[in-house]
Amino acid sequence: MDPIELLKEDHAKVKKLLEELDATTEETTGARHELFAKIKSEMEVHEAIEEEIFYPALKQHPKAKEIVLEGYEEHNVVDRIMGDLAGLPVEDETWGAKLSVMKENIEHHIEEEEDDMFVKARDVFDRDELDSLGARMKARKDQLQASH
Ligand SMILES: [Fe+2]
Ligand SMILES: [Fe+2]
């Protein structure tokens, strides 16, 4: 299992769910609830495998350290907006605006990871390291999903 492919699959899934959620309105609250819960759960598991396994390994490489540190901060911003949304009724008039900002932040973060961080990761990790990271991340993801 390639760890970068695993992360990219998660990204594609979350981007698709965000488009679907973005198309909901105050009138389609059922779909809003369901899609938001799905995205929140996907993001929590995804951020966990990045922060517990992928980021710490990559951060050890000086040329990737800065982008990894930025990654943690971008997760914090997304988590904050996601927390706000989780505590707000989906029919609240500010819900859509908060969602737009969260979506933009997630999309920007995904772009930085795929266009910069993962390129550096391909460069610094050898095949064995990638295999070992991929196996650990997949196992942790399965474990987290079972309890989510
Ligand atoms: Fe990611
Ligand atoms: Fe991330």
SSE inventory with pairings:
Layout: H1 3-22, H2 29-59, H3 62-86, H4 95-124, H5 127-146
Helix pairs in contact: 1-2, 1-4, 2-3, 2-5, 3-4
This protein binds fe (ii) ion (2 copies).
Report on this model:
The protein has 148 residues and is an all-alpha fold. It has one domain (3-146): Up-down Bundle (Four Helix Bundle (Hemerythrin (Met), subunit A)), CATH 1.20.120.520. Helices cover 85% and strands 0% of the residues. It is built from five helices and no strands. It has helices at 3-22, 29-59, 62-86, 95-124, 127-146. The chain is elongated, with a radius of gyration of 16 Å. 24% of the residues are buried. The mean pLDDT is 97. The structure holds fe (ii) ion (2 copies). One fe (ii) ion is lined by residues 47, 50, 71, 75, 109, 113.
The chain-level mean pLDDT equals: 97
Terminal Cα separation, in Å?
A: 22 Å
CATH class, named Mainly Alpha
What is the H/E order? HHHHH
Rg (CA only): 16 Å
Number of strands: 0
CATH names the topology as Four Helix Bundle (Hemerythrin (Met), subunit A)
CATH architecture annotation: Up-down Bundle
Tally of DSSP helical segments: 5
Structural class: mainly alpha
In terms of DSSP E residues, the strand content is under 5%
| Morphology call | elongated
Which ions, cofactors or small ligands are bound in this entry? fe (ii) ion
The CATH superfamily appears as nmb1532 protein domain like
Domains, number: 1
Major sheet description: none
Residue share in helix: over 70%
Poorly predicted ranges (pLDDT <50, ≥5 residues)?
none
